[in-house]
From TrEMBL:
Keywords: Signal. Residues 1-22 form the signal peptide. It comes from the Bacteria. It comes from Mycoplasmopsis gallinacea. This is DUF31 domain-containing protein.
Length: 485
């Protein structure tokens, strides 16, 4: 099967910058009396500032509000341009770059800590109401309300990647690199994770039939093949070619018509039948021996991505196939730069993309005359260093597996494996893009969970049902959590 992407430029947009007024700052600056200007140091209970990771830590649920309005403070540009954001470590450093316009604010707030983003020259300064802090380090932020000031224009510093030639012993965590030969005899590269396996009848045996989760667009040519060769690679293992088969993919994921999108297509496409598409694939892998399977996979509970005890690997070295140098190794990323996957430097925070691939990239997929609308709604990071080969990386975000989708060097997306709870959020998005009635219609059919069948969802497929069909009376090794929605 041959897939070709054709970009259809359907929309144009303008960057809209929104400025939120700081709340709880009812100060009349114009009426302030002439008085000696205070400093942060004069009343601060600490000298060394706490180094926070509100945006760096993907497991952390706190999202600070929009930066305090510039009308309440001045920042000293001359004291910034020759410094990196990470150079701001002490309360004296804050006084050198920042001042409040009113002493009332000095009397209201302490500076608690900072968070630096050297690669984009950005600093977040966290302020806390004096009545809410006794000067001790805070260990539980669940009931803490920070104000913050966000400052740009610091000296940017690019942190180099660890050289790809350095190979390190890497414990098998069920993540692998992939090499696939497409129909044009070209090598496609990507990533995947072994997310489950068929439990052997004999419990003393190690499983040899495993299921990979990856990005669907890596397997366009293989989706309808009975079997194909797939080459696995890893940092400290020799390449291994195995027999593989796509048993589930995102074509026609939903039981509803995509005709509502026709109005956005050029005239020559408006008579085409449209189908829905979600960018994922689940691939069955068969190892020849237990010894081979043990080299590439792990049945340890800590590697079960569905388990509540699983912790994502964003805080450890992450690897992918290095397209630039053609190296058949994992390329290591400095852990201090893991924010590159998570941080949106425009909105300063994790956010759900207000769009889909169809709207964002003006793209439909043509498969042998069948036209698919890509409805993969994703969590979007900016500035990712991942190349195209990074597609297919699977990690847990907000309690569920997410698949890395990367179409080029500069943009990447994390696609959730289920969208259920976010119904109201996306309903508004589609309503504004299409029309109120069409948006509500679409959102009523848009929820999905690729692993679990759910009567409330209008999806046409799920892994649990496909597994039951392929292997009746058999069990999976990792227990998939059932969705209650």
């Amino acid at each position: 099967m041959k897939f070709n992407k054709r970009k259809l430029f359907l929309f144009s947009g303008a960057l809209v910058t929104t400025v939120a007024a700081a709340t709880g700052l009812a100060y009349v600056l114009a009426n302030s009396k002439e008085e000696k200007k205070l400093t942060f140091k004069e009343s601060s209970p600490i000298q060394k500032l706490y180094n926070l990771s509100m945006h760096h830590n993907l497991d952390y649920k706190y999202v600070p509000p929009t930066s305090m309005d510039l009308k309440f403070y001045n920042y000293k540009r001359d004291g910034i341009i020759n410094k990196k954001a990470s150079d701001i470590k002490n309360i004296d450093d804050i006084d050198e770059i920042l001042e409040f316009k009113s002493n009332d604010l000095y009397q209201k707030y302490y500076v608690y800590g900072v968070e630096a983003f050297d690669e984009i020259g950005h600093l977040i300064i966290y302020l806390i109401d004096k009545k809410d802090w006794n000067g001790e380090e805070i260990t539980d932020f669940s009931h803490i309300n920070f104000e913050n000031i966000q400052i740009d224009d610091f000296k940017q510093q690019k942190t180099p990647d660890i050289p790809v030639s350095i190979k390190r012993e890497k414990e098998i965590d069920n993540s692998v690199g992939l090499k696939i030969l497409n129909s044009d005899n070209e090598m496609t590269t990507g990533n995947a994770r072994f997310v489950n396996y068929l439990s052997p009848d004999n419990e003393s045996q190690y499983p040899t039939k495993w299921f990979l989760l990856s990005a669907g667009h890596l397997f366009f040519d293989q989706m309808d093949q009975e079997e194909f060769d797939l080459t696995l690679f890893h940092t400290n293992l020799e390449d291994k070619t195995v027999k593989a088969k796509v048993i589930q993919d995102g074509r026609d994921q939903w039981n509803f018509s995509a005709e509502v999108f026709k109005k956005f297509l050029p005239w020559e496409y408006r008579d085409k039948e449209l189908h829905t598409y979600l960018d994922y694939a689940i691939i069955e892998i068969n190892f020849e021996t237990e010894e081979d399977a043990k080299k590439w996979t792990s049945t340890k509970p800590q590697n079960d991505i569905f388990s509540d005890s699983y912790r994502n690997n964003f805080s450890t070295f992450s690897g992918y196939f290095d397209l630039e140098n053609g190296e058949n190794v994992f390329k290591y990323i400095d852990t201090e730069n893991k924010w590159l996957y998570l941080f949106d430097p425009v909105y300063f925070g994790l956010r759900i993309n207000n769009s889909t691939q169809f709207f964002a990239n003006d793209q439909i997929i043509n498969s042998n005359g069948t036209y698919y609308v890509d409805l993969s709604t994703s969590i979007m990071p900016s500035g990712t260093k991942f190349k195209q080969g990074s597609s297919g990386v699977v990690e847990k975000i907000n309690s569920i597996p997410n698949i890395k989708i990367a179409f080029n060097e500069k943009s990447g997306l994390w696609m959730p494996t289920k969208i259920v709870e976010e119904f109201e959020f996306f309903k508004d998005v589609f309503s504004s893009k299409i029309s109120e009635n069409a948006g509500i219609y679409l959102m009523s059919n848009f929820k999905y969970d690729i692993f679990n069948h759910n009567e409330k969802l209008n999806q046409s497929k799920s892994f649990d049902k496909i597994f039951e069909t392929l292997y009746p009376n058999k069990t999976l090794g990792f227990k998939i959590q059932k969705n209650s929605n």
